[in-house]
Amino acid sequence: MKKMESYFKEVLSAFLKGNDVHPSYLITGVFGQGKTSFLYHILRESVNIGILPIFVIARDLFKKIEAKDYGEVKEGINRIVKELKASIQNGDFSQYRQFIISLPSESQEELIKFYQKNLDKISQFDKLVLLVDELEDIYKKIKEKAGSDPFRTWLEDKSYLKILSLTPSGIYDLGGADESRLIKWNVPPVSIEYIRKHIELSTGKANALWWLSRGVPRHVIQNLPKLKGISEEDGSYKISETLESLERIGKEPGRVNAVEISSISDHSKIKYLIDLIPQRSQPYQGFLITKQLDEGELSNIFQKMFDLKENDERKLALVVAHYFKLVAMTLSDDEFIAYINGNEINEFMELVLDILLENEYKKPVVEKQMTKLLEISEKLKTNPNLLLTTLITNSLQGSLQGISYREKVDKKLPFTINEIRKLFPLSMANPIIKSNPDDAFREIEVKEYLYVGMIFLCFSHLIETLKDI
Fold first, then answer.
1. What are the angstrom distances between the C-alpha of 447 and each of 168, 242, 254, 456, 459?
2. Per residue in 311-342, pLDDT tens?
């Protein structure tokens, strides 16, 4: 998140100075990930340096535009932007309210109060940033009216900056010409390190909060009070009732429960759903994975193991290594040590690949190497001892920092990896059901490979609401 903030701060600064900057950007992220919050961040940053930001909801903007081609789309948007700029500059927000009407009334009022309070800070009304939220709800309708790639000339217009937000599944609807004119950034999920450092929870509850929220900022905030208000002493029934009351994750028709308690046959284990931390156990053969895991060294091993030789393939190996460590840390103890049974290492790797696809499937290095990822998964099935023996060998040779193989490991998770996958299902990408054969194939591809929603990275501003403005 900090990298994104720094990048757009530089873009805004360069734009203010009159430098030649790219005019159009796309912010992506699964439902609840913080796309809107990031647009609010840009809103504040723009005002702070004297630039006029205009935040609108896509459906409210484009229902005002009747266009038969991409030229008319550009003319219609620019006409509205010009009118809004003039009315806001004059302190009149009656027209502006029409373009945020889809927001809750409280959010509308907060936005307008923000403009009224900070209007005197805007010194460069000729410098403008248009922030368009929830584009996925309207883009297909615009294409139906104005043809394919309806934004092509508008996105090239350098008279003002354009920052749009869209869910990853919505990217499939973007025309090639439109998509190629956008610089894309993905909002990362909240990291387990952030949760443990900044939220007052035990390690087991911190891990549980992450999994119950799938690392999605919106759900982290919503679930936190309920998780804080319950303990093992409350008993399995109350824990179950509380967790089943948590908001479902994702958007219809692919929403999933925060937890599938029905997948647990042993109800004595329900208490561990709010204390997800390795427990003392009978000794077994397995791996200790620590925070010191060297992603570069692990990437080198994956390159050889899975025959990843070309440039993009090697980059893919590094992405896989990153997610291997990331998933392990969400299942680790107080000292950030994860304990994985050797017999479950392939299942763990499958979980890693699922989560990687969940978060990165439109990242070029992943999108272009989708076949390779599937080959990795298949290789784990056809050669089930490959990963186990490779990691054991490198561990014993000392060539892989952060992973060690032990004949006697005395801690393990209260659930198997397979149970974790059933307990915390991933939200399916929104199905795209149409008569067009290409779209039908795309639906199958999405359903089979891309499950959308969980884990990851730093999250420095634990969701920014309008009241924080």
1. 13, 30, 10, 22, 28
2. 999 999 999 999 999 999 999 999 999 999 99
